[in-house]
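Possible race condition, two jobs.
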Amino acid sequence: MPSAVTSQPLIAVGYIEGSTGFITIVHDIELPPAGGYHRKRRQLVQKCRVLYSEERRTVLAPNALECLQREATIYDRVGRHANIIGYCGMHLLSDGEPSIRLEYAEQGTVRGYILSHAQKDASIELRTRWILGAASALTHLHRHNITHCDISCRNFLVAQGILKMADFGAASIDGDEPTGGEEVRYDLPKRGRKWNDRPTIKRDIFALGMAIYEIMLWQMPFADLTDGEIERSYANHIFPDVKALPYGGIVTKCWREEYDCAQDVLAALNSETPT
């Protein structure tokens, strides 16, 4: 069972936002312009600003509490891991709204970090630590019979320089149907299968390969292509060039579905020295 909802004072609290309509909350977020589709309401909880959208939650996420409870179930099951965002239970805000309390990732998402920092400022040692952390987190997740189903650099956070996996809103638990899917750049091609017949472990490993690529190259895969162009490229077995990329051979094997489990990817990364 997931953690019970409590009303104790909070240090950090937030919703998880993705296709279900939640947002990861961090301290000192600037409010967006008033009005429009992304209209937000701010509430002060001790020293933590909490942003959420009643409009989006109603329109896009009628099962909001169910999604939060599902995430809580996953955090409870996997427990503590150095590369999974810390979880401190479910809590009620002062107006009775449920939320989940998470570790504060003060440096935002990995993708945001990449966009705001020049590649020259990201050492090969840092990038290697991050991809090893991503593979380690995914290995830990799979050992607990959970597949993420939305691996992406937008769903890895950075806390004190350490990569942290987050956002389990799309995950599959014990082989049940995932509740979401990957962004197009990270989405495993069908390759003759029906969409729902793609193994979720293979989906995770394919997406892990894309995350390794994005971190090592320090930019999104096919950043200059539209979603439709990317889908056509993948359908025609055209993927980004990895010849000069550190760990490029491992990335290619992830894309080709040559690994059976995340542990094999982690072992391969640990055995290879980047060039």
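Job #2 (started ~2 s after job #1):
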Amino acid sequence: MTDKDLLDIIEKGLLLLTDGNEIKYWSFQQNKWLIKKVAIDKRSGREYYQFKITVEGVVKRRTIGANRLIWMIYNKKISTQVIDHINGINSDNRPENLEEMSYTESHQQGAKKKEENILNSLCRWFEFVGEHHREPLTSNEVLYVETGF
């Protein structure tokens, strides 16, 4: 199943995004609307959806990232670029938090966020050390602090 196949299903109104940010699809077998459950990759923690449809007797399967599918439904078009999370939280798949960008832009943004996380961790560590700093109490402690022996 290609992105074009999914877009056709979206345009026919058979795949929708609910107000609660859930994927709803029409089941011809059960003749009713169903909620598509999101799956989570055990290694990466990323959310995705799996689909299986039959077209002219041929079963087609597709796995697609939750962010990409939600973006496709909301914008009703196919993206050849990366669909990234504006706030950097991969589980926040609200349409207003998703944006289309090049792979290079996404990579640069990810590197910048990683750098910010490292700096924030270092700042928290130095604050912790500063809060727990005390003056040496004995001459042996002073000697150890000054020489390391």
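The chain has a mean pLDDT of 82.
Logs attached separately.
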